[in-house]
Design a protein that fits this description.
Radius of gyration: 40 Å
Helix content: over 70%
Largest sheet: none
Distance between the termini: 112 Å
Number of helices: 1
Mean pLDDT: 87
Strand content: under 5%
Oligomer: single chain
Length: 100
C-alpha cells in the first residue's frame, strides 16, 4: 500500500508534518551526539586496554626471567646430584670389581 500524504496546507509540508520532521531532526541530532560520545569512550577504553596489556607484558617478562633463573638453579642442583651419584656408583663399581 503506497504512502499517502495529505494534500498541501499553508506550509511546505502537509499538516502535522512540520512537528514530525522537527522531532526526527531532534532525534538525529541526539543520536549524532550519542555516537560521538560512544566513539570517544571506545577510544579511551582501547587506549586503557593497550596500556594495561603493555604493563601485563612487562610484568610477565619479569616473572619469566625470575622463573628462568630459579629453573636454572634447580637444574644445576639436579645435574650435580646426578653426576655425583653417577661418580659414586662408578666408585662403588670400581671398588667391587677391584679396579682400584
Amino acid at each position: 500500500m503506497p504512502d499517502q500524504i495529505e494534500p498541501g496546507g499553508p506550509g511546505a509540508y502537509p499538516s502535522g508534518m512540520e512537528a514530525r520532521v522537527t522531532v526526527l531532526e531532534e532525534i538525529a541530532a541526539s543520536t549524532k551526539v550519542a555516537i560521538n560520545d560512544l566513539r570517544a569512550e571506545m577510544r579511551q577504553l582501547r587506549s586503557d586496554m593497550i596500556q594495561e596489556m603493555r604493563q601485563l607484558r612487562t610484568d610477565m617478562q619479569h616473572q619469566f626471567r625470575s622463573l628462568r633463573g630459579e629453573h636454572r638453579s634447580d637444574f644445576r642442583w639436579l645435574l650435580g646430584i646426578m653426576l655425583g651419584g653417577f661418580a659414586g656408583l662408578l666408585g662403588v663399581m670400581a671398588h667391587g670389581f677391584h679396579w682400584l
